[in-house]
Design a protein that fits this description.
Number of strands: 7
Strand content: 15-25%
Number of helices: 7
Strand order of the largest sheet: 3-2-6-7
Order of helices and strands: EEHHHEEEHEHHEH
Mean pLDDT: 95
Helix content: 25-40%
Length: 161
């Protein structure tokens, strides 16, 4: 069964750094916001990078992204997927990143995990003309990377923003 991405991109006219995930998890699709699963470390990592409290509400998360010149979306618009597993993704159709790139001065693109990075390079890099950089996934499935190592690796986002 094909699942469609339910979330619009999060950005504004001041967004300079685009962070791309692969596809929203089941919890994110249910909660209608990015990285909604409580075990995903995305919000803890960004809060540490920017030296601010971990956001709890969707509005606080939205403010964290926009107040720091970030944009947030995913590389897949629709696909076949089992649960939330990137490994199960089949027949991915890429998102149209022009929705962001035509309206925000994006200078850098970072991919949250290897699936997002691989699919961006395969389907979108030639269209955007922008190279992406791979960051370790904040997913709880990436247990090899403990929170302090993730924060250290993600510091580059704070330097670009």
């Amino acid at each position: 069964m094909t699942v469609h991405h339910p979330l619009p991109p999060l950005f504004n006219e001041r967004s300079r750094v685009l962070i791309l995930g692969s596809f929203p998890s089941v919890k994110s699709r249910e909660g209608m916001f990015f990285y909604h699963h409580p075990q995903n470390r995305f919000w803890k990592v960004l809060a540490a990078v920017f030296g601010c409290p971990v956001p709890e509400t969707i509005e606080e998360k939205r403010r964290l992204i926009l107040d720091h010149g970030l944009a947030l979306w995913d590389v897949i618009d629709r696909c076949e997927i089992t649960g939330s597993s990137d490994a199960s993704i089949r027949d991915p159709v890429p998102t149209d990143l022009s929705r962001i790139l035509d309206h925000a001065p994006i200078e850098a693109i970072y991919c949250n995990g290897s699936t997002a990075y691989r699919l961006y390079r395969k389907h979108q890099q030639s269209r955007t003309g922008l190279e992406a950089r791979l960051l370790p996934s904040t997913s709880p499935a990436n247990a090899v990377w403990q929170l302090p190592r993730l924060v250290e690796a993600w510091q580059v986002v704070g330097k670009e923003a």
